[in-house]
Amino acid sequence: MNIFADNLKRLEDVAKLDNIKEEEIALLREPVKVNYSELAIGDKKYPAWRILYNRALGPGKGGIRFHPDVSEDEVQSLAFWMVLKNSLADIPYGGAKGGVKFNPKEADDKELEAVSRAYADAFYQELGQDKDVPAPDVYTNGRIMSWILDEFEKKVGHHEPGMITGKPLELGGIALRSDATAAGGYLVTKEAIKEILQDKKEVKIVVQGFGNAGLFMTEKLAADGYKVIAVSDSRGGIYNEAGLDVAALVTFKNSGKAVNEYSAGRAITNAELLELETDILVLAALENQITVENADNIKAKVIVELANGPIVYEADKILFNKKIVVVPDILANSGGVIVSYFEWAQNRTGQILAEDYLKNLLHKKMIVNWGRVYDKYKERSGSITLRQAAYSIAVQRILKAEKYRGRVAAK
Ligand code: NAD
């Protein structure tokens, strides 16, 4: 499956919707620079990428993924989504992404550190606080960011904590970052419950993916009294129609077990979980989860994309015809990069801002961004999706910046 080809189709839809000229939309059809390297660790070689997709609004920004299925198509798609996400979030970044085709679950600490440092060695000339700023993504974390920062600083010979975000506090990180993606996703989910489900009383929730994004999101929704009936991780799901005891499940998961081993519920597959009867389905794992094969069987009323790209282009249409509302990734999961922006701004200025102030700022930004997307969606009285509304706002801001820079695509 070619994920990037799907993105181009979504871009064409927006160009048609907003009558965007060919030479303008062409600026967004390809990345500025694809950097590739093979990381040699002992006798193993791991393909690695850093792709800078666009820099009209500012330096590149986007996470690094370590996963055995990472490919150039995936990294380029993730970089493309970062461009739109940063634009929609109204933060001064272009978009980029990185990845290593490597399974950290099979590596010991020594190899994990070696891969992280080799990544910095391979790409340090492409990175920097004013060039391109990485962060964690799937199967990477603050520890990995620390090794990359340390290696980068050794290479360039000076301190530059703003070259990476999602760092531990001691290296210039920010407390809010750990659950920021979920915090932002939670705020827009509440808006969707209010506007789309008309503040329905007993809201049922299903969550796919129980990592950084999914686990914190589940905790926040459960703490608000919503009924979480199923969650899953890579090994499968657990279902309890009466509602799961989320606190107990989190303790169970944090003890190193898989959620489908939890006893107070019925073990189900990830495929079954997606098709459960529910009000909200939160997708917080990987791409391509809802496709033409299963879209017709989806019963959720609202889908929240905490993951990037979990729904394929053709499935979007099927869901739209079924009147299932999708809160798109570039809006729903933007809390992470918004807090990364706070971290970067603090690193650059040396000023430390109070956590409450930043929490409120995140809250305000998410609600404003939801409002802009939802207003546009309503303006077109249901003839477009929330995704198309979000893409339209994001693309227009980037193209305005490109215009001010005097840039048009080569014919
Ligand atoms: P993570 O590595 O912390 O967690 C991933 C989770 O997904 C794990 O629980 C894993 O077991 C599960 N998983 C993997 N394959 C699965 C499958 N086939 N079915 C069900 N579950 C599966 O990663 P994360 O940071 O939570 O990222 C999840 C998604 O959210 C990704 O798409 C990522 O790009 C996106 N995202 C994350 C952030 C962030 O700040 N962490 C920000 C924006 C977007």
UniProtKB/TrEMBL annotation:
Presence of the UniProt keyword Chloroplast in the record: no
GO molecular function terms noted in the UniProt entry: glutamate dehydrogenase (NAD+) activity; nucleotide binding
CDD domains assigned to the protein according to its UniProt record, in alphabetical order: NAD_bind_1_Glu_DH
Record: residues binding NAD(+): T181, N212
Residues carrying the site annotation Important for catalysis: D137
UniProt-listed InterPro entries: Aminoacid_DH-like_N_sf, Glu/Leu/Phe/Val/Trp_DH, Glu/Leu/Phe/Val/Trp_DH_C, Glu/Leu/Phe/Val/Trp_DH_dimer, Glu/Leu/Phe/Val_DH_AS, Glu_DH, NAD(P)-bd_dom_sf, NAD_bind_Glu_DH
Binding site for substrate: K61, K85, S340
Active-site residues, Swiss-Prot/TrEMBL: K97
GO biological process: L-glutamate catabolic process
Keyword annotations of the record: NAD, Nucleotide-binding, Oxidoreductase
Domain Glutamate/phenylalanine/leucine/valine/L-tryptophan dehydrogenase C-terminal residue range list: 175-406
Record bears the keyword NAD: yes
Entry similarity comment: Belongs to the Glu/Leu/Phe/Val dehydrogenases family.
The protein, known as: Glutamate dehydrogenase
Organism encoding this protein: Candidatus Falkowbacteria bacterium CG10_big_fil_rev_8_21_14_0_10_37_18
Lineage start: Bacteria, Candidatus Falkowiibacteriota
